[in-house]
Amino acid sequence: MTKRLPWNRENRWRWIDTLLAAIVVIGALLYVYELMVGSRGLQVDYIAANYGQYLRAVTVNLYMTTVAFVVGMTVGFFLGWLRTIRSVPVKKVIRDYTALADASSRSPFVRSGMLALTVAWTGVKYLVRRIGDAYVEIIRGTPLFVQILFAWSILVVNFPGLFTNPSSVAFTAGLVALTANTAGYQAEIFRAGLQTVHSGQVEAARALGFSRLGAMRHVILPQALRLIVPPLTNEYIGLFKASTLVFILGVQTEITFVANKNAFAGHVFEIFAIVTGIFLLITVVLAKVVQALESRFRIPGLGIQQTRSERHRARPAEVP
Amino acid sequence: MIRVEGIHKYFGTLHVLRGISLDVEKGEAVVVIGPSGSGKSTLLRCINLLVEPDEGRVFLEGTQVNRADIRREWVRQQVGMVFQSFNLFTHLTALQNVMLGLTQVKGISKDVAATKARQLLARVGLAAKEHAYPAQLSGGQQQRVAIARALAMDPKAMLFDEPTSALDPEYIREVLDVMTALAREGMTMIVVTHEMGFASSVASRILFMDTGMIIEEGTPDKIFHHPEHERTRSFVDKILR
Amino acid sequence: MDTAAPARTERPRARLVTPTTALRGAEIAAGATLAILFFQEFLQFSLFDPNLWLAYGPIFLGGLGGTIRFILLVIPISVILGFFLGWARISLHRVLVWPVTMFVDFFRGMPPLVLVIFAFLFGDDLIPQAIKDRLLAGIPLRVVSVTAAALAIAFHSAAYQAEIFRAGFQSVPMGQLEAAQALGMKPWQAMRWVVLPQTFRLSLPPLGNELAVVIKDTSLLAAVAGGEIVSRSQNFAGTLSISGYPVEWLFAIWTAVAISYFAATFTVTRLLLVLERRFHTPGLEAVSI
């Protein structure tokens, strides 16, 4: 009896498919190479001699990114927390208060005073939340480019005595703008993460006698962090990419070398290769790390995949 | 009506169907039972060619349909299918779900299709729910819409793939009632189910499948009370107890 | 069964402006005014200085026109390209998947600014000579280079949108396709009537965010003096001290530019929200964090 193996034919197809795919990919790479290098030939010694310069430049970017990211995270966390405050209609506040106060037997004078305080406190909460909203909306609604120029203008016009040389003005302005920017974006990530953790969890924690901070520390954060880490890492990658923008103020980064085409005339492809190599190495490696982390720390039942198992069989899109 | 001859199906190295042959007469209701992974669902999918059998022949009213020159879409129009997980089109209302096949596959005008769809929804007892989206319906209601959607194509036969196993207990009855009525009207049906009450009252024949083969077939009485094979007996014992 | 009923099968229209949204709009307008007044007070400038607008107005309007032109060029290209790239990525054929993955990984991994500068400097070299001779003859090199830079932004965004659409496609369960086939639909019919409508709804919210990002990314063209609002304003700002204008105008200029971008992103995200509400279907909400 001959045993039929119907998947054999599929396997052959797969093989041809793979071969074609490889041909297309390599062909595309060769095409770009040919157009940019042509008959000139790749100058490996140029790369060998100059890559160090670019690596040093990229450390400036990494340094700025990291400082801005860490400071921005602190600001962003509290901002995000602020934005989870629910806005309660004044009518409801008054109704709730009177309903509660009816039970107690205080004098009407004290009662109206307390009511005013309660309403005022609600107003303060509303205002604080709205300021947080406005900050996030402004940061997310305008380009980082403009934010950097704005920060630089403020430093130059309002604090002219603070800096002695122009490059430190530029560096500080870049750092301030990057920090303010990432704080806005991270606030949004924290808000989404905190809000995703079910409010029942807070209730349960407070019922056990946790304080507001304690509930945050021991119950909500451990859950929210798992949801937050992937978008936060994506934010780091995005910020690293965005940090190239400080070049417009003249901070020395690898971009500065690229932008100066004349100085590197004749080595178009070599520069392209070095810069692309450095960036792809950092961003792609980081992205893979996120994927690994995500699957490593996933808790069954927590997260978007599980609650929507029917539909979300794949990772949802990363937050850009 | 439906005849299947010596069907084999492989998924990779997995031999899912090992030479199944089956003949279903017009108006017959055949119930297929068997442990999970025994190939029941694959058998149903081979009949309407959602899954292409690797070997063997499938006949519909005497015509072999798993031939290269027969359009698969045509075959599937002739045979309706109801799924375990309903698979109602999430973005469409109940009425639109029933209409879609009529307007897009059969090319019927919207007005005529809507009238027909309303009749079918009324028949499954959901006339009031025509503008509800699947997410707004209970499991039992969703499955009844799915039955109406399949019936709208005027199928010659219906395939039911565990239509009640994803339902909460309180909704099983309403779906089975619709299916029973359908069988009484003389619809040719092949039903994969573990609802023994339904099987014994409606089925003309019961097939017991295991490891990709039909182990035993016969009347409900024979399979449930006097099974010949040891495997059938132990399976029936498990689901009846 | 009431057969006399009209065959009303289209979805009931959702109300787009409700009292809540109107209140929210008023709140936003008040907030924006307060924010601007606060900035003016804090940084000692005035956005309503007639001298400023005499000098800067034409530059501002010209730059605004340039930016809008770039947005109108970049958004359609990026959405169409992103959609088909996302579709190709879920293909079973490696011939499609591998090149698309390479494209997406490259453009997502590179900073858009670097892409813009590369495209501006070397975009011209990447176009084959034959095409240059036939189609681009007589077009100045500068125009070609700036367009290449704009295309780099479009490609960068297309790579992100490919991921959005891919997730949208993959979020539609296999059972939906199976049910469509079981009704006798041809593959393209199942795609058109069952898969695409769901992908579209699931992709809308993240797409709104991404379009806001593209709009902001057009500001990167200033790095190559693309002639849009940031580069023109930068030029003007650079001449402030030479022309003897007050240095506080810097703030006015950048506030005006920021407001324009804010208005643009705000409009686009709200438009997408309106679309989202218009096509809202229970059970088809995209989840994004």
What does this structure look like?
The complex is a heterotrimer of chains A (320), B (241) and C (289). Helix content of chain A is 76%, strand content 0%. By secondary structure, chain A is mostly helical. Chain A has one domain (42-299): MetI-like (MetI-like fold, Orthogonal Bundle). In chain A, helix 2 packs across helix 6 (166-196), helix 5 crosses helix 6 and helix 7 runs antiparallel to helix 8. Chain A starts with 6 loop residues before the first helix and ends in a 13-residue tail after the last helix. Mean pLDDT of chain A is 77; it is low at 1-7 and 302-320. The mean pLDDT of chain B is 92. Chain B has helices at 40-47, 72-78, 94-105, 110-123, 139-151, 169-184, 196-202, 220-225, 230-240; strands spanning 2-11, 14-24, 29-33, 55-60, 63-64, 79-82, 157-161, 188-192, 205-210, 213-218. Chain B is of the alpha/beta class. Chain B is globular and about 55 Å long. In chain B, helix 6 (169-184) links the parallel strand 7 (157-161) and strand 8. In chain B, helix 3 (94-105) packs across helix 4 (110-123). With 289 residues, chain C is mostly helical. Chain C has a single domain (49-279), classed as MetI-like fold (Orthogonal Bundle). Chain C is built from eleven helices and no strands. Residues 1-9 of chain C have low confidence and may be disordered. The chains are: A mainly alpha (320), B alpha/beta (241), C mainly alpha (289). Chains in contact: A-B, A-C, B-C. Chains A and C meet through helix 1, helix 4, helix 5, helix 6 and helix 8 of A and helix 1, helix 3, helix 4, helix 6 and helix 8 of C.
Condensed summary:
The complex is a heterotrimer of chains A (320), B (241) and C (289). Chain A is mainly α. Chain A contains 11 helices and no strands.
Chains forming the largest contact: A-C, 73 and 67 residues
Indicate the overall shape of chain A: flat
Mean of residue pLDDT values of chain C:
85
User: Roughly how many Å apart are the termini of chain C?
Assistant: 46 Å
For the record, give the distance between the C-alpha atoms at the N and C termini of chain A, rounded to a whole number: 57 Å
- Give the CATH topology of chain A: MetI-like fold
- Total separate domains of chain C: 1
Q: Please compute the radius of gyration of chain A using only Cα atoms.
A: 28 Å
Summed up, the helix count of chain A is: 11
- From the 3D coordinates, which CATH architecture of chain A would you assign? Orthogonal Bundle
Question: What name goes with the CATH superfamily of chain A?
Answer: MetI-like
Give the SSE string of chain C: HHHHHHHHHHH
Query: CATH first level of chain A: which class?
Result: Mainly Alpha
What's the multimeric state? heterotrimer
List the uncertain runs of chain A.
1-7, 302-320
> Could you estimate the helical fraction of the residues of chain C in percent?
over 70%
Number of strands of chain C: 0
Going by CATH, the architecture of chain C would be: Orthogonal Bundle
Unreliable spans of chain C are 1-9
